[in-house]
Amino acid sequence: MVTIDIIGGGVAGLALAAGLDPHRFEVRIHERAPERHDLGTVYGLWPHALRSLHDLGLADPVRECARPATGVRVSTSTGRRLGGGTAPADSWLIQRPDLLAVLGRAKPAAVQSFDGAVEDPTTLTGDLVVGADGVHSVTRAAAWGCPGRRTGAMALRGVVNGDIDEFAPGDPWLQEFWGRGSLFGISANTRGVTNWFASMPEFRATKSEVLAWAQHHFAQFPAPVQAVLERVDPERVLLNSIMETPTLTRYVRRRFVLVGDAAHAMSPNMGRGACEALVDGATLAQCLSDFPLDVALREYQRRRWGRSQAVRAASGVVRRIALNWP
């Protein structure tokens, strides 16, 4: 039996665990913050992510707690249309806790769970150690020796009470407004709330100071932005630096393999981070199920490296364009 240590119980780690036969694999998940608070911000799932969920037998349970995505519209800070498009068929919006709950319920009962941070992945005894531990991955630091890097931008994000129709009547598309070296976006969510996010160049300040800055800075943006800002609750806001994983040429090194943000953390501007993490986990599970271990890792590298790195690079380009819009 192959033993697998998975560091990180997020989307990629749980998707991997859900796809492995417990009669063939002994799986141990190490999660440092199993009970962390979550605001219920929304993930976008594109059709290729739904195909991976279908392979795991989870597409229908995800659809049951999600809502269809309609499309994306990008405008300037004065409301002039820049572009956008209709979402592909079978694209969905789902709250992060709901997606994790579906994946968690699919995890075989034989999977062992350990709470607490892994300080040194080299001490784990698995035949395979999977770094599903995010942009600050200790797995990548130990086996690749490269930390995540700052992009020079930061993001505020949160949810406000009320359906998207209350802020953009009759227009449930994801909307982004670019201008003045920043962007502000709103999107539909589930459970009677609306998702919002803002990005700007990074500066040193507390969350409350950045929120005050944003409320002043975006005061002249179009009406949907003002309607959202009027309802923002500071207790339901997160502030974070936007980090990226440096360009990696390989996701596999000896008995270590990277998935999700540990492999390709990207700017959030294309809404693809959760999709790529989900596909990573499902693809690695399929490769491990279909091939001997060494062949499976080569096949995972072949299937996932080029595609995920292309999305990571493209997301960075969109971020730079958006935050340099006049």
TrEMBL record:
The keyword Transmembrane helix does not apply. Gene3D superfamilies: FAD/NAD(P)-binding domain. Residues 120-290 form the FAD-binding domain. Keywords: Monooxygenase, Oxidoreductase. One of its GO terms (molecular function) is FAD binding. It comes from the Bacteria. This is FAD-binding monooxygenase. It comes from Kocuria soli.
